[in-house]
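Recall the central idea of this unit: under ordinary conditions, the amino acid sequence of a chain determines the structure it adopts. In this exercise we apply that idea directly, starting from the sequence alone.
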Amino acid sequence: MLRDTVDGVFAELGDTATLSKSWPQIDELGLPALLLPEDEGGFGGTWQDALIVFRLTGFHVLALPVAEAAIAAWLAAGTGLEGRGTIAGHADGKISAERFTGTVRGAVMSEGATFIAAPAPDGGTLLLASADGAISGNSRTRCFTAHRPMFSNSAPSRGLRKSRACWIPLWPCQ
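Accordingly, the structure predicted from this sequence is:
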């Protein structure tokens, strides 16, 4: 059923899908919450379900951050972060007193995301959120610098998902 539903929607969206016009349909299907348990407001899917969805995203040449949003939501589960998240490949900087100062590189389709999950410099996951609730900047800019950390909160460890959540303003690198 999941495969048929997602296949139909992705076929309809096609390779001309854009984040601004097509994301509401992805969100309506609950795909960003695919890996979250139902009792946390998620879809309750497994990694096998995720594999089906991720493969169909590629099959339909869908240029939307479906996998990135689902993985970011899974990493941020239980932290209170809401909205569409994304992932980044690298974070340079330091964490001191539960605050991160540094640069995040390789953020995928970060424009309009509410948080970014990146590898923490000391291991685990670094969750960065903009103070105003949305990450802005040129969508082609995938490098963000954190300035003046405002608030941070340690998230409880969830098995292999050691998370550290920091709410800080982010600006695109110049």
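The beta strands are 85-87, 90-96, 99-105, 115-119, 125-129, 143-146, 151-154, 163-167, 170-172.
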